[in-house]
Amino acid sequence: MSVILFQSTGKRTLFHRLDFRSKAVLMLAVTVTAFVWEDPLAQAGLALAVFLACLLGGVRWAYLRVIFLLMTPLFILLLLTHGFFNVEQVRSLLGREQLTYLLRFPENWRLIGGGGLTREGLLYGLNTVLKTLSVVMIVPLVIFTSDVDQVVVGMVRARVPYTLAFIFSATLRFFPLLFAEAQTIIEAQRLRGLAVERLRPWERVQVYARIAVPLILGALVRSQQLEVVLQSRAFSGSPQRTFLHESRLSAADRAVMALALGGMALAVALRLLTGFGSFRG
Amino acid sequence: MDIHTPLAHFEKVSYQYPHRTDFALQEINLTVRKGELLGVIGATGAGKTTFCLTLNGIVPQFYGGRFFGHLRVAGLDTVDTPIHQLARHVGMVLEDPETQLIATSVENEIAFALENLNVPAEEIRARIPRVLEMVRLENLPKRHPSELSGGQKQRLAIAAALAVQPDLLVLDEPVSQLDPQGAQDVFAVLRELNHTMGMTIVISGHAAEELAESAHRLILLAKGAIVAEGTPEEIYGNVPLLEEYGVRPPQVAKTFWLVRHLLPPGASLPVRLSEGLNRLKDLPRPVHLPAIPASGATRPSAEALITVRDLHHIYPNGTHALCGVSFDIHAGEYVLIAGQNGAGKSTLVRHFVNLLQPTRGEVHFAGQDTRTLSTADAARRIGYVGQNPDLQLFNRTVEDEIAFALRHLHYPADEVRRRTDEALDALRLNDVRQRHPFSLPKGERARVVIAAVLALQPEVLIFDEPTTGQDLAGATAILDITRDLHRMGKTILVITHHLYLMPGYAERALLMNKGHLLLDAPLREAYHNLAALERTALTQPQAVKLAQALEARWQVPLPLLTPQEVAQCWLAEATE
User: What predicted TM-score, i.e. pTM, was given to this entire model?
Assistant: First the structure.
């Protein structure tokens, strides 16, 4: 499996041309906006915008699909817990006692008697789901459209300590290798006659748990090799170093930063002043 | 070239890794002189890597442990001088091309060390094209390192080391994971650097033929100590010494050693192919036609077990990895699949177990389309042993590892026990059955994987690059297992580009190049088909080249493959 699986370096989109710092500001703006808004409709608009931006930025649909699949259990859990149990917060946000029950437990049931699934709780759960999606999808948009070395330069220019920036970039480099190794181990299990697709869920968990040992051992070996390589290349973690590539903000970067910060300020202001983005049930 | 000024000086250097009682290096006394190309040879575990890592201070500064004696490189003590300062003087290239490249483009890879050394950006930009030209990668500055071939990756690592303009370039087994073309390219670059620029180079490894061509001097390590030191003629010409320490001599040296009684008294053995070809004239006309073992006669009589018809495979990124490949594999055959990196060998065999599906064409196993088999079902009949054993071990004991598949396939307990015992016996792993697989040496870990695959009693066993990174003893041990399995009636497929290892094992060769099947022939025919081998960038073993030179000189057919077979031409026990 290719090490560059998680990077969309093949394409040169607007996002690829932007400096990492402007994309980091964009990520901040989307995250703040997602947290400020609580209206499912507004959240849906934001999530859709981020999704489309991902596709425009060359983030592969296959990767987004994996994200959706992996997060589906969490999303179902969020919808159910909010739908069934988030009563007080929803009442407080709506300023009314009466909620619309879609399903109700009999009064005589222990602990949950009288409770049930509310329409408003479900909608609040949907808001949380969409909020999570926006925040999760903006990460690949920023990371996959940035050259790792540019990320380091951008972070250092943004006054992040070089050692921290390097650890961040090393993690980005390391992750695809670990992912490829995990795939190889799963493949080795299939080649031992193991039909994972025919296993019961708890058996699958047991099988996947076995991946951990070779994966961790492999990661330890790799990290040691990496450190030998780094030290052999005069890496000492010192901030006293030069950079081959300059990190300069272009007009487009400045425009994106201004739009992102302006949009974020507007979202906060509208929420505070007009209630736009508030949860209305 | 003047190669007298000392550059690195070992004085009674001994070293123990932390928590070890044995010495990785013992009483090393050695001077590396400016402008020389020093080869470091020895079996796996002899201390070659540790020796290399002392030169830039990684040993002992990074690993810790106990270091005795003194080592000075370019006037600096390697224990007292920080590693990042030593890096100005010593460039290091490691074995694995994958883990030592850390940047996202060729030029960034070269720039990394220079940035760390605070070299101004303008100077970095000036040095990049210079070093890329030295390693012949001048057209690829923007390329992502993962898109390079193995040989290109190692040349990039060399360029990254050269960019700091070191006094000494150290390479630890740089070609062990490369195909012959990649290895030749790397050695060509090293010779050029050494001969034209006077770069001092220390290189360790098992590449006997290449080291004989390139090195000024060799040291032979065993258990961390230097047991012999001398010119390639002195070291590689001493075949009994090399064999005593588990080191493979160049085939030309081995061949002439076997017929040494025919050489003029006191004559040294040739260790380079060109010398060997010249010295053939010193030998009399071959008096015997060596006994050529009959090639496997399984094909005409046996039914096709695996049928491949017009197989194409295109990866999602558009790479056309297989282009209309067709052939049959018959029950009981031992087949070598060879070709340069990227020829499509692994892609081909992964179709047999449905890890990949044809883009076009068909693969049938025992009459059944492999697309209709799950990988798990296919694995019961076709065992696949991948390259890196460490990614195929995931149980707590050797016994559990072998029983893993049987238990998951719900075999009865006594059947699991019986088959596990059989596999342990077959691979001679009984003594370590309760050990954790990762506590075993690499060679034994490879055997555990084979035993685990064998427990399913598959009819076919595929070994994907089983000899990569192994020394002679390790590679031979694995190939001996494949021969034993073949004798038990298994069909064996081995993927490798180490052609010199395969005579005596494989009977038939499939040569692949850029997704095409170039040649499907008996092993002898394939090894003597120079045109086909060259097209897929494989190198004929030296013994084959000697045989062809004899054939041309004496006009007798000599389809020979090994030094032993060539030597038989003059030995009494050969048959006419």
Answer: 0.82
